[in-house]
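[Automated response] Your request has been received and processed.

Submitted sequence:
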Amino acid sequence: MTTQLVVLDMAGTTVHDDGLVLECFVAAVQSVGLVATAAELNARMGQSKREVFDDLARRQVGAGTAADALRDRGYDLFREILENAYRKRGVAPIRGAEQTIRWLRAQGIRIALNTGFYREVTDIIVDGLGWRPLVDTVVCDDDVSEGRPAPYMIHTAMQRCRVRSVRDVIVVGDTPSDMMAGTNAGARAVVAVTSGSHDAAALRRHAATHLLDSVRDLPGVIERIDRLTSSQRGPAPS
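Generated structure:
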């Protein structure tokens, strides 16, 4: 097989969400007096949450210390609400996600989880699922200078997993930000799943190369991609 690394998003892609993150996002925004609709916040799912609060605060009060303070209040409250929600409700995988991760390991494909969350809540989720031994690395927003749609989390995963070519990487996610990050990284395939926060129409608009109902269908896609790649390269010289 030619695929060397699969970069999997977490909430909505491999981790069951059911609107929890958006619910926490809306609660924090409204509590600090920021103005944003649920639809607007949903459109920015997958991005760095701190960057979203920064943009909302600057839009509302202009750049400066007042915006910085409003951003920090909102982001700190979001963290508190989200961590409490995960601790109270627990975490659960998307159906078939762990089986897909185990299939990737059996094929010798390296696995990276990546997320727009910060480290503390990332660890709550990964450790709650018991997935740390199953993946090669976990990359979160704290690990990079800029979150999605910048490609830096994907490139960090490549560096940690010692994968040199973006043509050997497949990116999987459930948000437009995931799709844009994968495209910006130059990944061989950018696979969208409709198990999370966006429907098929929204994901098709953002350069997804493949569209799936769930990450459980990913093995078949990887097999087809690698067969196609092998056929395009032709037989090895004798």
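Summary generated for your ticket: The chain has a mean pLDDT of 93. Residues 91 and 127 are 10 Å apart (CA to CA).
If you did not submit this request, please reply to this message.
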